[in-house]
Amino acid sequence: MLIGYFRTRTDHDGTASAQRQALVDAGCTQLVEDLTSGRRWEQPELRRVLDELHPGDVVVVPQLDGLGRSLTEVVRRAQSVFAAGAGLRSLKEGIDTVANAGQAMVRLIGSLAELDRSAARDGINAGLAVAQAEGRRSGRRPKLTEQQRVLVADAVLSGRSTAAHMAREYKISAPTVSRVVAARRAKIDGSEKDRAVLEASRQDDKVVGVLPLSALNGRLAIVGTSGSGKTYAAKGLVELLMDGGRRVCIVDPLGVWWGLRAGADGGDAGGYPVVVFGGCHADIALDDGMGAALGRLLGTHPLACVVDLSELGSSGARRLFMTAFAKALHEANTEPLHLVLDEADLWAPQRAQPDGQALLGQIEEIVRRGRVRGFVPWLITQRPAVLHKDVLSQADILLSMKLTSSQDREAVGRWIEGQADRADGRRILAELPQLGRGEGTLWAPSDCVLKRVQFPLIRTFDSSRTPQRDESVATPRTLAAVDVSALAIALADMEAVTSDTDADPARSRRDPASGSHRRLKQMEGELAAARTRMAMMQARLEQAEGQDARAAAVGIAPRRRGAAATRPKTEP
After folding, report:
1. Which of 117, 341, 413, 560 measures 20 to 30 Å from 96, CA to CA?
2. Can you tell me the distance from the alpha carbon of 76 to that of 198, in angstroms, rounded to the nearest whole number?
3. What are residue 81's phi and psi, to 5 degrees?
4. List of residues 6+ apart from 435 with CB closer than 8 A
5. d(Cα 283, Cα 277) in Å, to the nearest integer?
């Protein structure tokens, strides 16, 4: 029996009558029609015909593509016809499998289909190989970046967040979070014991166990309220720089960094040979006119120092000093130098005073473009909202300690928008008011580090500690020795060149030693004043010892003195 089969599309109904007439002219006694569309290519009537074929039947089609959408599908259905003992005839192509030539033609078409499949498979494999060699992944784009996968897994593994919370935060499913956490756990280590050994071996090469030491060569911002421990944490990081023999210059407007010269117990063991310029513990005294000379000295000498501005007097005097200092240091320095700016908002405020505009420009130049001249700026501030936004935004690493002011948290939020993930930023900003003393969130996007850390004890004397009520101020017994004689002469020469050049350039060339002579005379006067102060302190000490002796004679316990002495609270 001749069975005519044809298909028509819903958008080409005009072809149905032509196909039907062609099949009738071919002698078909049964006509079967399938209606298909561009989105739906189901052929239920054709499947029914193939299932009901009997040996000797012949399936007649107007053209071969009516059997399927691809060459492979056409060959597969033609083979189904042959398997039922029936024949296949195509009117357009002139194929009739009842004859031997027709069967040969179908076999040829099958060979071509196999060749087509093989070529397509080879092309796909070659494309995948090239993509893999270039580091590209096939398939759907992952919902999480590699950095986000690390952050999600670490948050869940450390207990800082739950899988359900991270799923909502990143808009992913809970099974996805589980797979990310499992992969991270396997990558860290499958064994708790091996993990502990691994972490112990890496501890010495990491900052607070999470940040590579090489990251300390990046621009760092440390923010936190007064008493949050930001200066203490910064001292611990500076100790790591000192251990590596780095050049460090600390601008200290509060007079709290000189303790780097002593060990934690008040002795010189553990202290660093840091030269202190200015302040109550000065190795070399400063005045507000020595900024340019000191800047040139530090820019050309390999040393670690503290520039203590606490005794300069007014804010205007400090700004005058810092303007000349920053300009001269920027011009003279060419080697790597970590410039630590404590209370950075004093030097780069968001709203600078008229006499501070030049200083703001110098600090911004050092922070934004100073890398080519070796500068590695570190910024410390308790008011990130007051620090100039163009300076804070340049930080590569952010250490955020306790912040309670909404304005300060908004300033940190602006840094987050430019550097890191917004969802993580919202979570961290919400946690800042609850952070304890010495605790902070360390964020280094380039190193994929986002972790809440507790900073360890420093190894040097804590000169920034605020004494508690009824507690005397502790002072170190000894300081690490430094040789400042050559530096004093070099600074005097720098100052002479600066002052003489400003006043009379020709005189400076004629008599460069005149400024040195005046500076040496000034230093001799300062030395005599220091000897007088020491003599007065010795006299007061002898007087106090006499009072203790008289108190002991009448049965009164003497008052305790020393680095660790405290005055007990008197009960009413």
Report:
1. 117
2. 59
3. -65, -45
4. 228, 401, 402, 441, 452
5. 6
Q: Which residues of the chain have pLDDT under 50?
A: 190-191, 193-204, 503-510, 512, 559-572
- pTM reported for the whole predicted model: 0.55
**Quick one: which of 24, 76, 21 has its CA closest to 47?**
76
d(CA 113, CA 366): 69
Fold match, 2-132 / 206-464: yes
SS3 label, residue 135: coil
Using the 8-state DSSP alphabet, how is residue 466 labeled?
P
How many Å apart are CA 174 and CA 197, to the nearest integer? Answer: 32
Q: 8 phi and psi, to 5 degrees?
A: -130, 150
- What integer pLDDT is reported at residue 563 of this predicted model? 38
Residues 46/53, Cβ–Cβ less than 8 Å? no
CA 98/CA 90 separation, integer angstroms = 11
Q: Where are the domains of the chain?
A: 2-132, 146-203, 206-464, 495-551
Q: Which two tokens stand for residue 199?
A: 């972490």
Distance (Å, whole) CA 241 – CA 250: 12
User: Which is it for strands 2-9 and 58-61: parallel, antiparallel or unpaired?
Assistant: parallel
pLDDT tens digits, 163-185: 887 888 788 888 888 888 888 87
**Whole-number Cα distances in Å, 477 to 127, 266, 447, 474, 541:** 73, 5, 41, 9, 15
Q: Identify the H or E element spanning 211.
A: strand 211-212
Element (H, E) at 339: strand 337-341
What is the DSSP code (8-state) at residue 460?
Answer: B
Judged by phi (left if over 0) then psi (alpha if -120 to 50, else beta), residue 145 lies in: beta
Residue 298: its pLDDT value, please?
A: 92
Task: For CA atoms 237, 238, 239, 242, give the dihedral sign.
Answer: positive
What CATH fold (topology level) applies to the domain 2-132? Rossmann fold (3.40.50)
- Identity of residue 551: A
Tokens of 327: 């300009």
Rg of the chain on CA atoms, in Å: 41
Superfamily of domain 206-464: P-loop containing nucleotide triphosphate hydrolases (3.40.50.300)
**Exposed/middle/buried for residue 100 (C-beta within 10 Å: 0-12, 13-18, 19+):** exposed
Q: What is the pLDDT of residue 160?
A: 67
